[in-house]
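Sequence in, structure out. Go.
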Amino acid sequence: MLEQYDDVLTISDLREVLNIGRNAAYNLLNKGEIPAFRIGRNWKIPKDSLIYYLSQWKKHQ
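Output:
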């Protein structure tokens, strides 16, 4: 599913994978629901963090 993405995703990648808007993506990151880090003003999301988030979300469905 995520093979086409690099090991570290951008906000744009996150939005594309989750099919969410800009505000929703920033809310997930700011709340720490998806562990990520910032370099300057740019968010970097490890692919493993997104995979873990998706696996936890799936368990609660």
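Check: The chain has a mean pLDDT of 94. Residues 47-59 form the longest helix (13 residues).
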